Amino acid sequence: MAKQAAWRGIHDATHKQRDVSQTPGAWVGSVVHTADGDVSTMVESTQWVKAKAKLQWVSDQLETGPGVEYKTLESIRFFFVYVAQAHPPTIPYLRGFHVGFLAPKPYEGCI
Predict the structure, then answer these.
(1) Is residue 109 in some structural domain?
(2) Which domain holds residue 74?
(3) Is residue 107 part of a domain?
(4) How many CB atoms are located within 10 Å of the residue 104 CB?
(5) What's the pLDDT tens digit per position in 55-90?
(6) Would you tell me which of 35, 50, 107, 111 could form a disulfide with 67, CB atoms 3.0–4.6 Å apart?
(7) Which H or E run contains 32?
């Protein structure tokens, strides 16, 4: 039956299905809850800790070291794109990363 459904363009991955719940666990780093008709989205706690650690690392590197390697900063930027999907208040900070990458040359402090 799954083969026939796939042939018709209906792709169903049973390993991705979950039981119905108003408070399911994290899915792709974000947690969504519904209560009293309101839907709230939060970043999974492990992802939030990782995000804070990455920001602290960048801050430390820019204060003490010769700069941050461009590819490393790019990797951190992509991680924050992922975080911003679940936590929209981080979008203005993400824009700061984007502005730095859209400059014609790597910005000051970048190796």
Answers:
(1) no
(2) 2-102
(3) no
(4) 5
(5) 899 888 888 877 778 788 888 888 888 888 888 888
(6) 111
(7) strand 30-35
